[in-house]
Structure formats: C-alpha cells, structure tokens
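WARN retry 2 of 3 for item q-0093 after timeout on previous attempt; input resubmitted unchanged.
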Amino acid sequence: MANQTQQSGTMYNAITSGSKIIGTIIADGDIRIDGTVEGEMQCAGKVVIGEKGLVKGTVTCQNSEILGTLDGKITNAQTLALRATGKIKGEVQTQTLIVEPNAQFNGSCQMPARSANSAK
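OK item q-0093 returned
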C-alpha cells in the first residue's frame, strides 16, 4: 500500500506495485507510483510514475517523471520528463517538456509563456 520512505534525507510517498488506489491523493512532498491510481492526485512536489505504474485521472504537481503510463490530464508547474518507457494519453500542461526517444505521447500539450520576471 502507501508508505513513506526516507533515503538520502529526502522524504517521499510511494504506492507500491500491486496496490490500487481509487479516489483523491493529496501529498505535501514527492510521490512515486508503481501501482495503479484512478482519480485525482495533487502533489506539492514531484510525481514519479514508475515503469509498472499506471495513473488514470488528473494530476497536478510541480514536476513529474513518467516511466510508466498516464491516461488523463497532467498539469505541471515546471518540468515534465517523459522517459523512453513512458506513455501519455491525454492532456499535458507544463512549462518545460522533455521527451526521450521511444516514448509515446498521444494527446495535446500546452506550454504557457514564461513571464519576464520568472525567466530571470
């Protein structure tokens, strides 16, 4: 199920492989998904969807790294990295998008313009 792990002084939440959560997740820190999440996820930090992870629904976070599958909508305040094993089907809104070769992205992407103050 969900647990918190501490490595190298960094605290994060984890949904392990074999776990399935249906509903709303609100996390103050980073979260890693290696199981299945269906619903809404609000994260004040980074969301990592592991290679076997599946998220169906809406994700709001600061940064994300997708190695597994996202089916829905994701809104990133900063950077989304879609790794070679990652798949996105849906809507993306992010400041910066990184897509590795062999990644699958089927959907739409909006990248709002940075203001002059945020670019400094």
